[in-house]
Amino acid sequence: MGTSLALCVLGAGCSSVPTEPVSLVDHSLWSTNLEASEDPFDDRPQEVTCSELSYGQETTGGEENFEVDTTRCDYLTVAQPSLAPVAVGDTLHLRLWHFDLTAEEPAEAHAALRLGDEVLWEERIAIPNDATLLNPTWEAEHDFEEGEPLYFHLHNHGQNSWNLIELTVGGS
User: For 30-67, how does the pLDDT look when each residue is reduced to its tens digit (9 = 90+)?
Assistant: First the structure.
């Protein structure tokens, strides 16, 4: 036991939880090359309208993010391999910004993140609604290996803009 403790104190032989948050995403790696049959979300409409000019990597306020303008994109699921492992109990943190949500008729937006086969986070937001920063922190309920598919999903009616700023593991 003394040897194990000494090795752990020296940084060897024990699991390490990052003290600083580690990003699970690189906004330049999001891929839209998903077939309808590969989309893991069940609210995909029969016809999807989504111009390639309506989403992509942006820099806003000095921070890299992935922007979706729903004026020309009512449904989008993008994917990339996760950049770090996640263990049960790890702290996950999301920052997702949306401007004022407007539509001709009242509606509902659906934003979600999925890692592997598990929905990490999702929220349904009434439209119309005020601009806000969604900023949840929660504990992982499952283990995930680095490289597992990570999906960002947005289904929204109306002229709205969303920015996925951050999804991290670790830290406090």
Answer: 999 788 888 899 888 888 889 999 999 999 889 999 99
CB 59: neighbour CB atoms within 10 A? 10
The rounded radius of gyration (Å) of the Cα atoms in the chain is: 18
Domain count, the chain: 1
Instruction: Output the domain CATH number for residue 160.
Output: 2.60.120.260
How many Cα atoms within 13 Å fall on the side-chain side of residue 7? 8
105-152 tens-digit pLDDT: 898 999 999 999 999 999 999 999 999 999 999 999 999 999 999 999
Domain of residue 119, residue span: 20-169
For residue 5, tell me if it sits in a domain.
no
User: For the segment 5-38, what is each residue's pLDDT rounded down to a tens digit?
Assistant: 444 444 444 445 557 999 999 999 999 978 888 8
Question: For residue 16, what are the CA distances in angstroms to 13, 21, 33, 135?
Answer: 9, 13, 35, 25
